[in-house]
Amino acid sequence: MLFKDWWENLFYPFRLFTVLAISFLVGLTFANFLTLNYLADFRLFIFLFCALILTAFINFLLKLRGLVLISFAFLFFSLGLFYLSYFSYKSTPSLIFDQSASFNVVVAERPAVTATNQKLTVLADINGPSAAEAGKKTRLLLKAPVFPIYRYGDKLEINGKIVKPEKIEDFDYPGYLKGKGIYGILESEQITIVGQDSSIWVTVKGALFLAIEKSASLISRSLPEPHASLASGILLGSQSNMSQGLKDDLQKTGLTHIVALSGFNVTIITIALAWVLAGFLGKKRSFWAGLIFVIIFILATGCSASVVRAGIFSMLILFGTTYGRRADQLNILTLTALVMLLQNPYLLFYDLGFQLSFAAFIGIIYLAPLLSDLYQKISKRSETPDFAKMTCETLAAQLAVIPIIFYNFRTISLISPIANLLVVWSVAWIMLFTFVAIILGFIWAPFAQAIALLLWPMLEYVILAIHYLARVPLASLTF
């Protein structure tokens, strides 16, 4: 009887979308393990497509709706299987490697500055062998010296060569770059700044990046270290001034996500924020307040692709936990995945932030209710209190991402669930007070210092918790 009900549910319109979307995503996943060539396998795809359509039509005439659904599921699986090869064929530029030339590029993202160099994502005018590729904009990774400092929107003239990315031991560096839409590394012999992109979007985004730099500077003047770097990391994702010791402790305790602008950390922070706001505004109003916060957060951190994805996931979490049913949340999740992966299917296999975001969302949809039911059985309560519900959702997100973290880093933080329960609730407050300190600090610097007096105890609590938890025996295991 249960199987019959489950089978019947598959034919509701909202569930049909789920089945077909998941079939496409599974096909896209399998495509990463195959070496399909779009041009060579195009005829095979057309034959398979026609065969599945014909099979579905025959089964429809025979009124075998189950086989019709299976035929369309295989059809969408095939579409996913071949979409990756099609995307690779259309998007991979014809680059000439290891040949010195002159390039005109524009800095397309906020530069990542380290102690030894700058990594710039640039858009280059590449003249390919065909007329269609002439003048085509190609994303490249440019490694430049620390000085002079380059900014988003700078127009550069570069004498150098394009180098093909190579694997670094077990790390698939070319795949990692393809996830960011980058297909080559530009090694420079000489870099000259020749101007600045004056388009409206670049001007606005550049102003946001400049505001981030000034905000980080204001925080560093208002707080001592390591409190200042932790506050900048939590709100702005900036880790440039953070000590290696603090970074190691964050990794051991499974709290790296609180200082990384990814969908996973913003999801966790949004859960904590929604819980805090619900106590003052109620559940429905907290959704809109949280939505406004997420939009401001995206703008304040420069609207980079990873942050926009993080914001989308956070909005989905807020909507799903406030208004949506579990089935609706699954459709929202698959629709979001389809939109993102149609734009760049390499995200599925090579973008860790994308994987963590989806895993965290799935954990909140499916694991959190189970943990909530378990809490009710243990505590013998008919309902789960808000704080316990937030705890269950945070823990569920943590459990869901453990396999991905282990696969990528061969590390398991055994102390992570306890660390998150002790720390994550305070992150929303730290973000709020840091944001207020920055806004008031732009008006008059002593205002920021006054807010910092309230902010320091919360940061001290987090630092002490991280420090002591990281030193618990067997806090993390590395394989």
What does this structure look like?
The chain is of the alpha+beta class and 479 residues long. Helix content is 65%, strand content 11%. It is built from 17 helices and eight strands. The chain has helices at 2-9, 13-31, 38-61, 65-91, 173-178, 200-222, 227-236, 244-252, 263-281, 283-300, 305-322, 326-343, 347-350, 352-379, 386-409, 416-443, 445-470, and strands at 101-107, 112-113, 118-126, 136-144, 154-163, 185-196, 411-413, 476-478. The chain has a five-stranded mixed beta barrel. The protein has a two-stranded antiparallel sheet with strand order 7-8. A hairpin with a 4-residue loop joins strand 2 and strand 3. Helix 2 packs across helix 12, helix 6 crosses helix 17 and helix 9 (263-281) packs antiparallel against helix 15. The two termini are 46 Å apart. Mean pLDDT is 78; it is low at 128-135.
Short structural summary:
With 479 residues, the chain is of the alpha+beta class. 65% of the residues lie in helices and 11% in strands.
Order the strands across the largest sheet as they lie in space. 1-3-4-6-5
State the shape: globular
Biggest sheet overview: 5 strands, mixed, barrel
Strand proportion:
5-15%
Percentage of residues assigned to helices? 55-70%
Give, in order, the helices and strands.
Answer: HHHHEEEEEHEHHHHHHHHHHEHHE
Extract low-pLDDT stretches: 128-135
Number of helices: 17
Question: What is the straight-line distance between the termini?
Answer: 46 Å
Kindly report the average pLDDT value.
78
Strand tally, please? 8
Integer-rounded radius of gyration? 25 Å
Briefly note the structural class of the backbone: alpha+beta
